[in-house]
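ARCHIVE CARD
Drawer: 12
Card no.: 0347
Subject: one protein chain, sequence and derived structure
Cross-reference: see card 0346
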Amino acid sequence: MMKLLVFLTFGFSLSACQVGYIINNAYHQARLLKKAVPLEDALKNEKLNPEVKRKLILAAEAKQFAEQKLHLSETKNYSTFVQLDGPYVTYVVSAAPKDELKYYTWWFPIVGSVPYKGYFDPESAKALAKELKEENLDTYVRGVSAFSTLGWFRDPILSSMTSYDDYDLVNTIIHETVHSTLYIKSNASFNERLATFLGDLGAKLFYQQKEPDIYKATQQTVANETSDQKIFSQFISQEIKNLEEWYTLHRQDADFAKNREAQFQKIRENFSKNVKPQLKTQKYLAFEKSELNNARLMGFKLYMNDLSDFEKLSAKLNGDFAKILEYCLSLEKEKDPEAALKKFTELSQ
């Protein structure tokens, strides 16, 4: 409740709708946390699936590794477990103009401008998407299995997270712990891509320090996931760039809507022809038949667009996680951390 009151002190700068949204989400967050049970109690529960218990132990190991070996912020996160009633904990809405690859953003205290809005209730997310569609915006609604409250609350391990394979679970724990360690206000793209990059690197290091037999069993999985992510990131980054150029030339065309759909189909065909044959896992295959619009593409841009600057940073610092993290922490006060990162990596060449 004290933290809820802190949020409400910002009410003078928020609309009544925003205040209502914050109060509603705080209520659902409180309900979620009320359901949390300590990990040790969950592990003693004879009714809990043994595979779920194994995942809880793995998540706890990943948290310990992230804090003690990777030197990410120590928190009380992931020391409890919540059994959800469904497959997702929240539902996120994103939007974009139909003729421009540009984030539609919302502003909130603490985090600043963000290109998404989350709801614990799926019907509320669908209602917002409907309103935005009526404003002639592209929209995208997706379920979320894990999220970070940036240290404001004690984030539990959610039952939705135990559906991940082992590597993705470890990756997620480290990804969300990066958010708790560094989150630069109004720089969602930088924050998400940083967490994606360090989540991948941290998960790889986690398995390298495991017993040799365990590491060998997952080494190929790690290599395949890393390879696929790089291939898809390069593909989607170029396709987004191409589409941006197309919009500049054709947004005024009389048959814009029809031709835009043709562009989306071309992107899917390029994936099928040029990317799919290179993939080593099943992770991105659904893209081939996905419904595309600008909001969906901006979601890919948010998390995966051009990780090359982080790769260059890693190469400059010899893949040393601690040094990479130290440098990124130095960007906390930067107005444009992405520009600062690019300048730093270019100076190294």
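Annotation on reverse: The radius of gyration is 21 Å. Residues 11 and 112 are 14 Å apart (CA to CA).
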